[in-house]
Amino acid sequence: MFHYFYRMFYPLVYDEPLFRPPSEAYSVIFQVTLGCSWNKCAFCEMYTSKKFKVKPENIVFEEIERIAKLAPDTRKIFLADGNAFVLSFPKLNKIVDKLNSNFPKLNRISAYALPSDIIKKTDAELKQLADSGLKLLYIGIESGDNELLNLINKNETYRSTIEALIKARKAGIKLSVMILNGLGGQKYSYQHALNSAKAINEIQPEYLSTLVLSFPYGQNHYAQKFKADFAMLDTISLIEEMGTFIQNLELENTVFRSDHASNYLILKGILNRDKELLLKRIEQVLSNPGQAGLRPEFLRGL
Ligand code: SF4
Q1: Pair type for strands 267-271 and 28-31
Q2: Among 34, 43, 45, 47, which is best to mutate for testing ligand 1, by the most ligand atoms less than 8 A from CB?
Q3: Residue ranges of the domains in the chain?
Q4: Which atom from ligand 1 is nearest to the alpha carbon of 36?
């Protein structure tokens, strides 16, 4: 009896913490993996409380069937946790098939992925997933700078990232790519901005966003995990870094968003169409930071 009422009020019980991209706010989320299979990036504390696991298929399928009865018209589904795309092609394909047969109006399935999760799948496997509805991957590439990728222990390089992301795009999967503003601190700021722009230019993702490096356990905690000396950027330097990054972007048609809660300055547009407008806004802020409309609650070092 207790089980019955519990299921009625909590049809899906998540293994917390649960994260999703802002654009998946109205999606149904199924946890098909728990945690992150890498879990060792210097700046990331998202899943450090969890040990990575693949959720048993029978439990995932039972959850899908249960939610399908409650929300049969679901159109968007996000697969969690950290890098659900790490699942092998046969496992992912079975989940995608199960979702399609239970949600007839389903329009999009998406997931977080690491470049290494993509590269392990063949072109034909990626295409089949895309054709079956797994149409969008969110990938925090963080930086395009090889030195910095090593210092933050990302386990990827400029080349491995580009190769994987281009492979996914060619298969018909759309990409939402994230860069971390301030990641390398003062010393690596310029090369981070420049090489991240180069990487993005090669990838030409459909969506691009920037988040600001934050320190949930304090700056020292990050500095200890960063494999070199780390000196944090103040707000103005963070915005200068954004200026260098945007200045060097050469994009055909990418939706750009820098409007996460961590961003001091909200920037949005289509790139390159709105590049000059965004650069002008940055220039205004840098020439008169006191009047610039920066989010006052977050200003650091001003
Ligand atoms: S791969 Fe992503 S989720 Fe995993 S530790 Fe790195 S940033 Fe965090």
Answers
A1: unpaired
A2: 47
A3: 12-288
A4: 4
For the entire predicted model, the pTM comes to 0.94
pLDDT digits (tens, 9 = 90+) for 220-234: 999 999 999 999 999
Residues recorded for the chain: 302
Residue 83 CA to ligand 1 center (angstroms) comes to 8
Question: Which pLDDT does position 253 carry in this prediction?
Answer: 97
Looking only at the bridges linking them, the beta strands covering 254-258 and 53-54 are unpaired
Ligand 1 site residues, Cβ closer than 6 angstroms:
36, 38-41, 44, 46-47, 82, 114, 140
Query: Which residue positions in the chain have pLDDT lower than 50?
Result: none
Task: Choose which residue among 18, 19, 33, 36 to substitute to test ligand 1 binding: the one with the highest number of ligand atoms within 8 A of its C-beta.
Answer: 36
Q: What percent of the chain has pLDDT over 90?
A: 88
**Cβ-count burial 156-169 (b if 16+ within 10 Å, e if not):** bebebbbebbebbb
Considering only CA atoms, which of 240, 224, 241, 223 is closest in space to residue 232?
Answer: 223
* Token pair of 167 as six digits: 């492979």
Summarised one tens digit per residue, pLDDT across range 261-301 is 778 888 999 999 999 999 999 999 999 877 666 665 555 55
CATH topology for 12-288 is pyruvate-formate lyase- activating enzyme (3.80.30)
